[in-house]
């Protein structure tokens, strides 16, 4: 008697992984704000990934499938994607955060799903389905409410410039996320770790050159020691653990649906602010409800396996 093949479904694990990544990145904006006031965004990003590359390298040695052979075979592509996803995105985000507010950074990160959908439409001719597209629009409306941008609050030119820089940086993350589809045999750990390992030497070279040219100042030990706990937290939780969780979730659900969970970043920042004694307004809770509804719609939508990017 023949049996029909059973198609595996992603299950709950990738959804939980993506929710964890969203919460970790929501905390990153709150923790990073005082750090970039002491350490330049370029050196902050460089040190962040220097610290993150160490545990990632150990994990690659223990759990990877011949990772260093893959690194030798694909070092050029891994370097470019690592610089886009870690270097360009990280420096742009921290530069914008220095000028703007953590809540704005969290909101702008939530525009990544719409950018992902538009790029898939433009580059792959894959028009998003009405359910996924509707969920993205609903989620974006929710994060606008969460941020207070719809409340008519005054925004300074300095904050607008910071927001524009952060928005530009998100394009680097979208391209990095899409790039993972080039090597379907890579695990989430291998893609996350190898791109980080290849980005670190270039970041060190750029930071040292910019310091020698007088463009930025290298952090002094007194400045580093004051923010070392925050820097280590950012390197371990939002950088290593969250990126691994995010790349795992994207591999299971696809870039379009996986990136939609980034709309949870401003919601998590809102809830963390509430835990610290900041009382959200009614429109912020309404925005959170919109985001949660959008995530529910997205996770329930069916995406063909060949459409995952």
TrEMBL record:
Pfam family for this entry, one: EamA
Keywords: Cell membrane, Membrane, Transmembrane, Transmembrane helix
Membrane topology: Multi-pass membrane protein
Keyword Transmembrane: yes
Localization (cell): Cell membrane
Annotated EamA domain residues: 15-147, 162-299
Domain of life per record: Bacteria
Annotated TM spans: 12-30, 42-63, 75-99, 105-123, 135-153, 159-176, 188-210, 230-248, 260-279, 285-305
Predominant cellular place of this UniProt entry's protein: membrane
Protein name: Transporter
UniProt organism field: Pseudorhodoferax aquiterrae
């Amino acid at each position: 008697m023949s049996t029909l093949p059973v198609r595996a479904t992603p299950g709950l694990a990738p959804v939980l992984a993506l929710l964890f990544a969203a919460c970790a990145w929501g905390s990153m904006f709150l923790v990073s704000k005082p750090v970039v006031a002491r350490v330049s965004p370029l050196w902050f990003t460089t040190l962040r990934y220097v610290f993150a590359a160490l545990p990632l390298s150990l994990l690659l040695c223990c759990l990877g499938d011949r990772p260093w052979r893959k690194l030798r075979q694909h070092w050029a592509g891994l370097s470019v994607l690592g610089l886009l996803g870690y270097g360009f995105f990280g420096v742009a985000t921290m530069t914008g955060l220095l000028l703007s507010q953590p809540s704005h950074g969290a909101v702008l990160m939530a525009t990544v799903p719409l950018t992902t959908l538009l790029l898939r439409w433009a580059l792959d001719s894959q028009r998003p389905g009405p359910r996924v597209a509707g969920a993205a629009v609903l989620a974006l409306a929710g994060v606008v409410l969460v941020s207070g941008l719809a409340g008519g609050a005054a925004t300074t030119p300095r904050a607008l410039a910071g927001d524009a820089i952060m928005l530009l940086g998100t394009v680097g993350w979208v391209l990095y996320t899409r790039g993972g589809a080039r090597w379907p045999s890579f695990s989430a750990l291998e893609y996350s770790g190898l791109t980080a390992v290849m980005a670190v030497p270039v970041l060190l070279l750029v930071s040292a050159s910019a310091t020698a040219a007088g463009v930025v100042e290298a952090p002094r030990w007194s400045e580093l020691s004051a923010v070392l706990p925050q820097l280590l937290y950012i390197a371990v939780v939002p950088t290593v653990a969250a990126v691994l969780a995010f790349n795992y979730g994207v591999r299971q659900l696809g870039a379009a649906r996986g990136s939609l969970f980034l709309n949870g970043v401003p919601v998590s920042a809102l809830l963390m602010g509430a835990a610290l004694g900041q009382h959200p307004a009614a429109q912020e809770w309404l925005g959170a409800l919109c985001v949660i509804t959008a995530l529910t719609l997205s996770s329930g939508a069916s995406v063909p396996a060949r459409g995952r990017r």
